[in-house]
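Hey, can you fold this one?
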Amino acid sequence: MNVNKKLQSFFFIGLLTISILTFMGHINTIDAQSDGITLTKTTNLKMKEFTTHVDNKESNSSIDLPMPSPTWNVTQIHLNFSNIRLDREINIIEDNTTVGFHTLGRDFRGLGVQINIFEPTKIFGVYLYGVAPSPAIVEVTKVQITGYNKGGLNPDSPNATIYGSTDLNMSNILGWHLQTFPDPIDLPIGQYYLIMNYTQIVSIEGENVYWFYNNISPLHPELRISFYVRDLGIWHWTRGDPGSPFLHKIIQRTNKTYFPENINMTAELDNQSYNISDGVEIGTGNLTISHINYNPGDIGLQIQIYNNNSVELLFNLTYHLSLSNLFTSGGNLLIRNNNDINWTLTPTFSKIYSNYSVQFDYPISWYNLKLFRDGIDITSQIEVNATNKYIFIPESVILDGVAWEIRANSPNIGLSLNTPKRSFEPSQELKYSVFAPSLEGNYTFILIDSLDFEIDRKEVPVILTETVYNYSLSANPNEGTYTAYIFWYDLTEAGSIIELFSVNIDILPLLILLISIIGSISIAVAYTSYKVTKKVKRTREEYRKSIFNKYMDILNLEYIIIMDKNSGLNIYDKIFASKNIDASLISGFLEAIRNFGIDLTGSNQQSQTVKLEYQQSKIIMSEFKNFRMTVILKENPSENFLEAIKALSYDIENKFGKDLEKFDGEVSKFSGIKHIIERHLPVSLIYPLKINETKPVKLNSKEEQIIKLATSIMKEKNLKYFFVSNIISLKGEFQA
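Sure. Predicted structure:
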């Protein structure tokens, strides 16, 4: 009878334990739950920066102006021209080639033509019309510009002053031949001679140079020509005679300035031609091009200048360019349920040229715009235009090398859900759909189980108006309330919503199992013969016993410590004893570990576990890679408990292994370990429990008995909660 009584007591406790687990779904723990999840996402928006580039330069018909970078656009151009003059021009003096020529040779060792300079002129070269049949004479002949004798023995003839000289360049082909002076010749206003001269050498018999002249309606009949001749044994220049000047053209530059309109001066930009207006004084002009948005690209700003002389111009230029650039600012948005969206942009401002400023055209739904410089609010120093939705940051507040933040809020856009079903069972598909505020942006779906674990997260782009979310529950999910967080966001707006779902586990199969346990034990006691018991029944009995042992192990649990092996610092610890555990026990245990040099070899590859006894406590120590877990119990645990510790070690490594490898002493990141422990060791049995009377649940007689007993204990102790240990005695019997 004693054996029978003990067996009945054993299985009654099993029934009691399972019954407690059954209605724990209707009992609330005292611990507070999380307030929700905050989602942070990166974003980027466009801003526009402005600057003004003012400078001056000497230029010619091709104006090249620098740009900050190829992304900048020109919005306005203002050009002021001064000292407008022609560059090198060809001044045609005589060009009629149908007339005669004079010969430079034995009789005439020099030929010259008068040139008149009416304003300061720089001469670069001349064109002469003629022919030189033999190169020999060319090699000893010079082309020179000399002074002009106005009086004396030989008036109106070349004098000995040479302003510039070059070797004759002429071939045996009749035509115009260019003579270039090594250095430009600056001539003031006055009269001069252009001569072809070889008077310093002996005449070469039969070698001549032919320089053509015009004596029939010349363009400049006033110009004289002179010959270097021998008279009475003396070589000298003859007095020049007018009316038949030699053919020549002068390559020159004068200081004459022009009004732009007199020379039809225009500017061409992006295939558009613009007339340049006259200035107040001769030689000045201006041009303004407004309301443009021209991007020069990589080549820089190039403006071509034209005139009706087919000659390049020279001028001094003062330019004023208004520039703008669209750039991207990074940032982030923070979404929290039932709160407005927080936006933070972190632009970089780099002052360029002068009058640098920035304008941000913010989205229409944003409000409460603020600007921070190095963390200090300077919104009062900028323009915030709530009507036209922009902020303008002037140059006066922009400093280099500081950190900028633009902060704003926008409404949390409510999302619409379609939830055909809110209650699910194991192996079912949790499913719902959400309707997008617009066909842009992305969703983030997060599913949290009843133990506050994130079990699913999906990032889904918005493609259709309705987006379906689904998640397949496992065959053995955690029972209770699951929370679905749905976030939607694009570059300028965001929204969120929370939906709750329940996951229920049918208790009926478990009760049937318990009844079968009692029935099978009754048969075993009645026949008292193990030979009749089949192998399958022994297996079931072991399974039933493991259920009981699992929860008895939990009630024996006193303390869990998880420490970083390298530093020896605790990353998590929890006391489960009814009173504080003796600190000397813990310190003594750790000292024993150091004294005996306990080292679990192979713990880097797999979890290693040892059992120790210290004083009156049973100690389980498990090592895996970078952490050591120590569990202190009042009694020896079952083998199943040891397996659970091993599995717990693997899960901790899987979740926090990378953080442990880089452990820097910060332990707050390991707070989630408590959820992993709850998954493997149902420590909720140790926590204080209270009865939830707001949910009507149909109970059987055993469950009603447990409720009455728990109520009686709370009333007796004048408490609003009770412990499972109040119901189950330390001896494993029911406490009446």
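The chain has nine helices and 45 strands. Let me know if you want another pass with a different chain boundary.
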